[in-house]
Amino acid sequence: MREYGKYFSFFRLRFNMGLQYRAAALSGVVTQILWGLIECLTFRAFQQADPSAYPMAFSATVSYIWLREAFFSAFSTWQTDGEVFDSIMDGGIAYELCRPVSIYNMWFARTVASRISMAALRSIPLLMVAFLLPGPFRMTLPAGPQYFVLFVITLFLGLGVTVAFCMFTYILAFFTISPQGLRMMFTSMVEFLSGAIIPLPFMPGGVRMFLELLPFAGMFNVPLRIYSGDLSGAEMLRGIGLQCFWFVTLLALGKALCRAAERKVVVQGG
Amino acid sequence: MITMEHVCKSYKVAKRNAGMKEACKALFRREVETIHALSDVSFTIEDGEMVGYIGPNGAGKSSTIKILSGILTPESGSCLVDGRIPWKHRKEHVRRIGVVFGQRSQLWWDVPVIDSFALLKDIYSISPQEYRNNMEELTQLLHLQELLKMPVRQLSLGQRMRCEIAASLLHSPRILFLDEPTIGLDAVSKLAVREFILRLNQTHKTTVILTTHDMQDIEALTRRIILIGRGRVLLDGTLEDMRELAAEHGTADAGYSGQAEQTVIHDLPAGRNGQIASAGCEPGRSNESLERIVAALYHKLDIV
Questions:
Q1: For domain B2-6+42-234, is the CATH number 3.40.50.300?
Q2: Given CB atoms, is B229 within the 8 Å cutoff of chain A?
Q3: Which contiguous run of DSSP H or E holds residue B12?
């Protein structure tokens, strides 16, 4: 337990630091409310064009959009920890390697902490606004208490999958020196495949079935659809099972790759 | 005890000439050059010793420190620090060593110094008792009282370096690696740092390995010098041995016509050998000449 205590310390320090950035949070909230409104209007237009072809309840889409905006900073893949990349690029990682800690666990703890602190600052005001909006754009309550509990659990599981995936961008930076290219590629790929641009239920049949098997579906697709009851029963259980599977798999792969990277590491600079 | 035997380490460096055409060529075929940072380095350091590790820029000093602290894996050769192979038993190894890289910071930039210290306490699982004792001693000796509550970004370099040194000693390491700890410091801070290191070595018997370009550091702190150049150990002895080596080369090279050597001979005062001898008798007065001797030696050994 003491072994994990130190990773909690990293978590705490990073979390406290994250809470300092109030101005950034405020501007984020404003941007995301506007963005959410645009999305709501767009999907409203889809739905009115052909209600029979619309694949989910409109209120479920609205909840999905607002939750997505509220927890945006927890799940976006470009929101990676700049400090980690800097330390690899300028050689500051030398100090981190001089500590009796696992580099992987430490980065994991720090990334989770900064994401939770950013999301905590942004989600509360944003959701308050979303619950007060008029008419069809108002955020609805969860489908039921059991859905709410599952939503919270899978939200954290989804965060785990997201961070475990982002860890690969950190580790690959050991090999490529400049991480920009990889980051761009990963970001645009994940944005599309995870349902950040268009929720996965809107994808055509075969594509949708395939995408739902990938780790990206386990990021926020599962919790956000459980909230509104759009995902339930056997399909929900399958989604949660895949989330667990991908979390464990990505973690194991990432740790193995990190060990290989540590052996090959060239610390930059004198 | 630290032993290094026949350690070799090389890096691959991608190279290309200037210009657009060359840059385009490099997209398809890169010329890679292997640089031998360390070739066949061996030495032994006993517990409680204080060793100055010197050599020109790029000689392999930092690579050695990085291997000894478990960050780099050498290609061949063996290295044991207190019975452990640093890069194989990294986590156990680093618990017993402290490292200061003078050109980097281990403190968190945006938070007060004390927060970084508290994090280190958790990282190293330092007991509250030990932490309190060490903090008390370090705060007093390095005059940290006023600095602890300040964010690191607002500290001057000298203040920060004192905090960096304290940070590397919180877990009472048996061995301390100092990689250019006085770089960029003013006279007062330099003296404070030196005094502290000397005291640490005397009272706690901490083994100290120090790399520096400041010959005053060497003169004030270390009895033993390891001189390294082009990845090889060229001298392992005292400051006097180094002066002798410089003198030998100075006389032997009188009729030598290499260009670099000639420049150096011109640079040096005429009665050089006499001065070297007298400098040996009066340490402390002779820093400029010591610097010149080292520069001349680097040229003579052709390691610059």
A1: yes
A2: no
A3: strand B2-15
Q: Is B114 on the interface with A (CB under 8 A)?
A: no
Residue B46 CA neighbour count, 13 Å, CB half: 4
Over the stretch B123-155, which tens digit does the pLDDT of each residue have?
Answer: 999 999 999 999 999 999 999 999 999 999 999
HEC per residue, B217-248: HHHHHCCEEEEEECCEEEEEEEHHHHHHHHHH
- The answer to whether B94 contacts A98, with C-beta atoms less than 8 Å apart, is yes
Q: Report, in angstroms and rounded to the nearest whole number, the Rg of chain B calculated over CA atoms.
A: 21
Q: What is the mean pLDDT of residues A152-180?
A: 88
Rounded-to-integer distance, Cα B101 and Cα B165, Å: 9
| Amino acid letter, B113 | V
CB-based contact, B124 to chain A, within 8 Å: yes
Predicted confidence (pLDDT) per residue in B17-60, tens digit: 777 787 787 777 777 788 888 999 999 999 999 999 998 888 88
Global pTM reads 0.83
Domains in chain B: boundaries? 2-6+42-234, 238-300
The band of A115, judged by pLDDT with boundaries at 50, 70 and 90, is very high
CB contact under 8 Å between A13 and B99, yes or no, is: no
Cβ-contact A121, A19 below 8 angstroms: yes
Cβ neighbours, 10 Å, residue A222: 27
What is the pLDDT, as a whole number, of residue B258? 39
Q: In whole angstroms, what is the distance from residue A20 CA to residue A12 CA?
A: 13
By C-alpha distance, the chain B residue nearest A11 is B119
In chain A, where the domains are located? 2-264
Question: In this complex, is the C-beta atom of A89 within 8 Å of any C-beta atom belonging to chain B?
Answer: no
B74: tokens are: 């050498």
